[in-house]
């Protein structure tokens, strides 16, 4: 398995155990103290753990090499896992909304103590650290899955912060704030889910990954390159496929043109390690009629 996928898998395993601990702590305490928002937030964390398991399986499949039926590999399985995370968020939001409306008509006074705040503050700190850790490594590894999951966890941290504030109001007799803030948490969760869905659907639609101008800037000064155009990139942030047209002098040999092409490829592979394959169409500097540019 590629080293990238092994690193992502290890991160997900660490996050998985953290989510299990956070989720169980919140659910058990929330049920015992009759605080709906804590229980709902705990189930959200447990669902995070489930999506981590799905992510681990997805990363394993994504790491498989290309075959006769999947010439570009299996990297987009990771994208599908990210989209699945968004739908699990919608499911959690639905469950929270349902429970909140039930609580409106069935007022239960929660038991709030120093232990309540201790559980919430400790789990909040762990959640913040885990979200920061996963997002940092997600950016380092160019992993859409880790970045999406870190956003999911960040929404958990925000929800826990809202709950802490709500408990202060509840202690002052404003019991109705518990279901209302639960609805607020659900809205935040839906918003995060839509953001994750939006970014990953673009990947499935082959949105450009690397700016064309950035590619052009890297090879502008390579000897023998007259011009480049029709630059396109597709794939995921960790597995990019690039194709472009490169214009060379009419009078050079095929061998010379191939040497220039290899220099361009090596330069781009070095600058953009996420690129897995480059396809270059070589053209003479006369008679070009298919040129289009999308340089940002």
Question: How would you sum up this structure, described in words?
Answer:
It is a single chain. By secondary structure, this protein is mainly α. The protein has 2 domains: 3-204, Up-down Bundle (Alpha-lytic protease prodomain-like), CATH 1.20.1510.10; 212-284, 2-Layer Sandwich (Alpha-Beta Plaits). The protein has helices at residues 3-33, 36-62, 76-104, 114-141, 144-170, 177-204, 212-219, 254-271, and strands at residues 227-236, 239-248, 275-284. The longest helix is centred in the first third of the chain and has 31 residues, at 3-33.
What keyword list fits this structure?
mainly alpha; elongated; single chain; 66% helix; 8 helices; 10% strand; 3 strands; Alpha-lytic protease prodomain-like
What's the short version?
The protein has helices at residues 3-33, 36-62, 76-104, 114-141, 144-170, 177-204, 212-219, 254-271; strands at 227-236, 239-248, 275-284.
Q: Provide the number of structural domains.
A: 2
User: What would you call the quaternary organization?
Assistant: single chain
- For the terminal residues, how far apart are their CA atoms? 35 Å
Radius of gyration: 25 Å
Please count the helical segments: 8
Give me the side-by-side strand order of the main sheet: 1-2-3
| Count of distinct strands | 3
Flag low-confidence runs: none
List the helices and strands and how they pair.
Elements: H1 3-33, H2 36-62, H3 76-104, H4 114-141, H5 144-170, H6 177-204, H7 212-219, E1 227-236, E2 239-248, H8 254-271, E3 275-284
Helix pairs in contact: 1-2, 1-4, 2-3, 2-5, 3-5, 3-6, 4-5, 5-6
């Amino acid at each position: 398995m590629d080293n990238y996928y092994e690193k992502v898998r290890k991160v997900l395993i660490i996050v998985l155990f953290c989510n299990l601990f956070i989720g169980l702590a919140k659910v058990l305490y929330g049920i015992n103290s009759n605080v709906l928002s804590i229980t709902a937030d705990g189930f959200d964390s447990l669902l995070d753990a489930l999506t981590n398991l799905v992510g681990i399986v997805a990363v394993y499949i994504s790491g498989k090499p290309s075959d006769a039926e999947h010439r570009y590999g299996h990297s987009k399985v990771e994208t599908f896992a990210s989209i699945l995370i968004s739908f699990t968020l919608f499911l959690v939001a639905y469950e929270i909304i349902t429970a909140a409306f039930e609580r409106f008509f069935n007022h239960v006074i929660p038991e709030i103590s120093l232990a309540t705040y201790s559980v919430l503050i400790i789990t909040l700190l762990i959640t913040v650290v885990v979200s920061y850790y996963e997002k940092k490594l997600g950016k380092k590894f160019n992993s859409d899955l880790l970045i999406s999951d870190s956003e999911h966890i960040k929404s958990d941290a925000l929800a826990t912060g809202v709950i802490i504030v709500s408990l202060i109001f509840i202690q002052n007799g404003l019991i109705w704030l518990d279901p209302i803030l639960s609805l607020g948490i659900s809205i935040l969760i839906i918003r995060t889910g839509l953001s994750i869905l939006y970014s990953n659907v673009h990947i499935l639609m082959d949105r450009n990954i690397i700016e064309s101008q950035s590619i052009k800037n890297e090879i502008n000064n390579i000897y023998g390159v007259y011009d480049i155009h029709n630059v396109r990139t597709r794939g995921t942030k960790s597995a990019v496929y690039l194709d472009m047209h490169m214009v060379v002098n009419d009078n050079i040999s095929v061998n010379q043109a191939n040497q220039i092409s290899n220099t361009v490829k090596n330069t781009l592979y070095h600058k953009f390690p996420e690129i897995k394959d480059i396809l270059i169409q070589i053209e003479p500097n006369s008679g070009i009629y298919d040129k289009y540019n999308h340089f940002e």
